[in-house]
């Protein structure tokens, strides 16, 4: 074999081996490329944990009702301002009349019950107040007192003048006690009364007999 023939054969063999290598490993470069392009686990953004929100406790009502020793609810005990009806009457202002209702009430107590015990005078005053609340009579003190045919001392819708006597001052004080509800009525819920000397045969419920008067509702 000549030199040139041998050199050509070697060259042909070299090109053939190179081609075989390239043809036998086509995925190597692809795998390298895939490895390079896969993102690192460290570079993947991690979800940010949401901080836990503390629950706000509901307000607690610390107020407790007053209880007795046995644990039952106990209503507050009312405090009486006066120890007796006579004390309540003695504590009232009697030198002046503040309004028309007071004057009408005092006139009714004076003419209907002067000389009666204080309980009887207060009961007469409370009859007038009860009538204003009943829905069957006028709604003001003076209208009840002056209503035609109800109180015999009223003349042509007017209350006669009254001298400033001890009896009248007592009537004014009793009227104040009644209007202020400063003492419980001795004839509860009564709306009518008459003198003991008469017997009208009313078909009503008798409430009390005080002094010379009988009270009904």
From TrEMBL:
Biased composition (Low complexity): 51-69
Pfam families: Hydrolase_2
Xref: InterPro entries: Cell_wall_hydrolase_SleB, SleB_dom1
Single GO MF descriptor: hydrolase activity
Domain of life: Bacteria
Region (Disordered): 42-77
Keywords per UniProt: Hydrolase, Signal
Signal sequence region: 1-29
Span of domain Cell wall hydrolase SleB: 115-216
Protein name: Cell wall hydrolase
């Amino acid at each position: 074999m000549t030199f040139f023939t041998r050199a050509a054969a070697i060259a042909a063999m070299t090109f053939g081996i190179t081609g075989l290598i390239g043809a036998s490993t086509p995925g190597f470069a692809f795998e390298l490329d895939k490895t390079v392009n896969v993102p690192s686990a460290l570079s993947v953004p991690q979800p940010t944990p949401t901080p836990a929100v503390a629950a706000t406790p509901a307000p607690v009502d610390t107020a407790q009702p007053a209880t007795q020793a046995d644990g039952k609810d106990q209503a507050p005990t009312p405090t009486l301002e006066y120890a007796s009806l006579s004390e309540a009457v003695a504590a009232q202002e009697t030198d002046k009349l503040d309004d028309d209702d007071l004057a009408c009430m005092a006139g009714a107590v004076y003419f209907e019950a002067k000389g009666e015990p204080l309980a009887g005078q207060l009961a007469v005053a409370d009859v007038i107040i009860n009538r204003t609340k009943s829905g069957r009579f006028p709604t003001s003190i003076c209208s009840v007192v002056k209503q035609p045919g109800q109180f015999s001392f009223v003349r042509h819708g007017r209350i006669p003048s009254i001298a400033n006597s001890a009896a009248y001052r007592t009537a004014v004080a009793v009227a104040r006690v009644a209007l202020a509800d400063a003492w419980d009525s001795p004839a509860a819920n009564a709306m009518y009364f008459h003198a003991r000397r008469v017997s009208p045969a009313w078909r009503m419920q008798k409430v009390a007999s005080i002094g010379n008067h009988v009270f009904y509702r």
